[in-house]
Amino acid sequence: MKRLYDICRYIKQNQNKTVNYPLSYTLRPIKWLYSTYTGPGNTFIALPVELIDNIEQNIFQLRDDIMKLEISLKQDLPKLLNGYLKERLSDLQKHWLNTKNKYINEIEQLAKLVIDFRSGRIPVQTVHSVLNTQTETLVKTMIHDLTQNLNDLTEKGHFISDLCRQQFRYLNTVEYDIDQTDNEKTIERKLVMNDQPDYILCSTDTLNKLKSEQLRQLRRDAIEKLKNNFNLRLIYADFSYCSFELKNMMILPLNK
C-alpha cells in the first residue's frame, strides 16, 4: 500500500479484528516518509485542532460514502438485477471509479499541502482553502449524483423482481434496436413472435409514475388472461432507455 487512501481504508477495516493482535511495527527513517527532511533542526508545525477536525469531517465522510457505494455497486445491485440492465450497471460502476479516482487525487493533493504547512512553506489558510475548493464540491456532487442513480436503478431492480414474481418476462427495448425512427407497427414486428401468444405491456418509468393505477390494472388484466391461457407469454417491454418516445402505455399485439 502506497496511498493514504488505501492505508486509511485498511486501518478502518482491521482496527477491531482480534486476529491482527499482537501488532508488529516496522521502524523506518523519517526521510522514507518525508523526503525533504534534513535533520532535527527542521521546522515542524503541528496542525491546528480545528483543521484536523475539518479534515476528518470532510475527507473521512467522503471516504465512507465511496466505500458504501462500492459495496452496493459490486455486490448488492448486481445480485438484485440478476443479469438485467448490464449496460446501466456498468455505466454506474464506471462513474463510481471516476469518483473514487477524483477523491484519491484530492487526498494526495491535501497530503502534500499538509507536509508543506508542517514545514512552514505555506500558511494554514492555504490548507483551509483547499478543503473548500471546487474540487471537493465536485466530489460531493459526483457522490450525490451517483447515489441518486444507484437508488433509481435499485428501485428498477425491485420492480423487475416483482414482474418476475407475476410471471412477466422483462424486456429492454434497446436490445431490440427500437429507436425514434420506429412506429407502432414496426415495434410490433420487432417484439411479437407470430407463433407465440403474447401479452406485451409497453411502458416507461415515467409513465409508470404518472399512471400508476393504469399500470396496476393492466398487470391485473394480464394475470387474468394467463389463468385462461397457460401458454400465454406475459412480457413487460421497457421503453425507458430507448430513443423512441412512448407517450402512452400500449399493449401488443395491437389487434388485442
What does this structure look like?
By secondary structure, this protein is α/β, with parallel strands linked by helices. It has two domains: 4-161, no CATH class; 168-252, no CATH class. 59% of the residues lie in helices and 8% in strands. It has nine helices and four strands, in the order H-H-H-H-H-H-E-H-E-H-H-E-E. Helix 3 packs parallel to helix 5, helix 3 (49-81) packs parallel to helix 6 (134-165) and helix 4 (86-118) runs antiparallel to helix 6. The N and C termini lie far apart (63 Å).
Summarize this structure briefly.
The chain has about 260 residues and is an alpha/beta fold. It is built from nine helices and four strands; from the N terminus they run ααααααβαβααββ.
Write the layout of secondary structure elements.
Blueprint: H1 4-14, H2 30-33, H3 49-81, H4 86-118, H5 124-131, H6 134-165, E1 168-172, H7 184-191, E2 198-203, H8 205-210, H9 212-228, E3 233-238, E4 250-252
Parallel strand pairs: 1-3, 2-3
Antiparallel strand pairs: 2-4
Helix pairs in contact: 3-4, 3-5, 3-6, 4-5, 4-6
